[in-house]
Specification:
Elements (H helix, E strand, L loop, with lengths): L6 H9 L7 H13 L6 E2 L9 E3 L4 E6 L17 H24 L3 E6 L6 H13 L6
Parallel strand pairs: 3-4
Antiparallel strand pairs: 1-2, 2-3
């Protein structure tokens, strides 16, 4: 079906739609952590890179990465339209993720990135989180 709006009109319309972030994936991880007795985390603290969850005492930052937006090699399917735009967008997101990881690690934080599809295996996610909480940051 052809779009009845001009590209400029479509862009204006789409830019007015506000993101909900990755709220559903975050809520799933929060439920997994609660169910498995993992305590001490906070959501959306003011920390470099805006992690989704932070364990301040353990200096652990957790990001829940959506398969599409962060370019999961298993599940990211590029749209057929505007492929150049979407390829650049996903590559920029991946580069930003690497930079944030590097900066947080330099600041003495551990970083755990959890793929959206990983939330289907709560025991594995819990084990990774507990292992990261138990590990020591290099140089501390």
């Amino acid at each position: 079906m052809a779009d009845i709006l001009t590209p400029r009109q479509r862009s204006k319309l789409m830019s007015a739609i506000r993101s909900k972030g990755n709220r559903n994936t975050e809520l799933r991880l929060a439920a997994i952590l609660k169910t498995n007795g993992v305590r001490g985390w906070r959501r959306h603290p003011k920390v470099l890179g805006k992690p989704d969850f932070v364990f301040r005492q353990a200096r652990l930052a957790i990001f829940v990465d959506g398969c599409f937006w962060h370019g999961c090699c298993f599940h990211c399917r590029m749209p057929k339209s505007r492929q150049d735009f979407w390829t650049r967008k996903i590559l920029k997101n991946k580069e930003r993720d690497r930079e944030v990881n590097k900066l947080l690690k330099r600041a003495g934080w551990k970083v755990l990135r959890i793929w959206e599809h990983s939330l289907l295996d709560p025991l594995k996610v819990t084990a990774r989180t507990k292992a990261a909480l138990a590990s020591k940051v290099a140089g501390r």
